[in-house]
Amino acid sequence: MTDWKDLTRRGVVTVTQVNPTDLDATMGELEGVDLSGSSISYGYYVDTRVTGKLRVVGDGWVRGTWLRIGYRIPEFDYQTELGTFIVTNDSASRDHGAWAYDLELQSALYGLSTNLLVRPWAIARNAMALTAMRQCVTGGGGEIVTSGARDYRLKSPKVVETGTSRLSALFALCDMATDRLDVDGHGRVVVAPYVAPASRAPSLTIDLADRRGVAQDGITRTTDWLQMPTVAAVQYRYDAGGTQREINASATVAATAHQSHANRGYTVTDMHQLNEMSPRTAQRAQQLAKQFLANDAVEHVEWGVTTTYLPIKAGDVVELIVHDGLEDYQGARKCLVKTCELDLGTMTMALTLKETASGDEEE
After folding, report:
1. 157 burial class (0-12, 13-18, 19+ CB within 10 angstroms)?
2. How many CA atoms lie less than 13 Å away from 18 in the CB half-sphere?
3. What SS3 class is residue 133?
4. What pairs with residue 128 in β-bridges?
5. β-pairing, 231-240 with 269-274?
6. Distance separating alpha carbons of residues 228 and 268, to the nearest angstrom
7. Whole-angstrom Cα distance, residue 213 to residue 97?
8. In 3D, which of 158, 225, 201, 220 has the Cα closest to residue 317?
9. Residue 115 burial (CB count, 10 A)
10. Three-state secondary structure of 229-254
């Protein structure tokens, strides 16, 4: 078992040029990479999931090839593909007789976001969502992995309009099948069953008090504790035979709640102006107000911590152990890796960790 607390490890970053139409065909290692100006950014709520930047000195990059960034630690017998990227910008500058290129890197999902349908795409009734996903990706020249993904039979025909990106169509199909869309380190589109972060077990633990731990000094915590609504209100306006009518309802937190007026001295109202409501009754409006208030009662807590390299990316779940500070935030905190900024020069990771108790919605 790999001991990620062993900070004496020595890893090697590799950059390989890849045939853009065959992800298994490589064209040799890229020379002249300046890792001090290079990084990878993973984002759980980012549509394209991963981006990067790579600084290259000299003319080693063959224009048009994709770049695969890998990392290996020989003493651990550890090797991984951090990402395989499209190069979308190759700005260059010349200094001291040498050209340097600042390459902007995007995932295969980005390539599907710029690939728009030039005519309507009709998906027949009873068609399977996974089959349509495969057609969507391969039709755009990509590779897709759907092993283990949930499928869905369309109950009615669906027409994807001209001008829709293949990525947008994929997201819609994934929503139907309750799957999550991602991309792997090899550059393949991945479709897998969506599992709420709160239902997943942590893959590793980051203990802030462990002297042999991987966390560096300095941590931040953000919370919407002081902005949480006191009142949730509903407003619904509609036309009743030429007469404008309005239904209103509201729900208020208990006086003992921290966000109550009694405890904070001010009121925060979360107003919901509805375009539709069925049935059009005060009872239904009151029911909705209570539902909105219950949703508002979830505190959103995030942590910022920098670690040495760990085998995690955005979307993984970890356990963060906090030993001091406000008592409400001490102990084991189960967190989703919301973002991960990997510095390829130092192989340190700046993590944004969102507590799974905060739900799984982008704020």
Report:
1. exposed
2. 24
3. helix
4. 153
5. parallel
6. 7
7. 44
8. 201
9. 18
10. CCEEEEEEEEEECCEEEEEEEEEECC
78 token code pair? 């550890």
Residue whose C-alpha is closest to residue 42's, from 54, 53, 51:
51
Pairing of strands 215-223, 205-207: unpaired
| CA 38, 190, 204, 332 torsion-angle sign | positive
Considering only CA atoms, give the Rg of the chain.
Answer: 25
Integer Cα distance of 328 and 345 in angstroms: 37
Residue 132: count other Cβ atoms within 10 Å of its Cβ: 23
Long-range contacts of 348-352 (CB under 8 A, 24+ apart): 348/216, 348/306, 348/307, 348/308, 348/309, 349/306, 349/307, 349/308, 349/309, 349/310, 349/312, 350/304, 350/305, 350/306, 351/303, 351/304, 351/305, 351/306, 351/307, 352/302, 352/303, 352/304
Q: What is the pLDDT of residue 361?
A: 78
- Contact partners, residue 3, CB within 8 Å, separation at least 6: none
The pLDDT of residue 210 is 87
Query: Low-confidence residues of the chain, pLDDT below 50?
Result: 363
pLDDT at 137: 98
Length of the chain: 363
Number of neighbouring beta carbons within 10 Å of residue 186: 16
Amino acid sitting at position 157: P
Give yes or no for a contact between 168 and 121, defined as CB atoms under 8 angstroms apart.
no
β-pairing verdict for 301-308 and 331-343: unpaired
Residue 306: Cβ-neighbour burial (10 angstroms; 0-12, 13-18, 19+): middle
Residue 116 confidence (pLDDT): 98
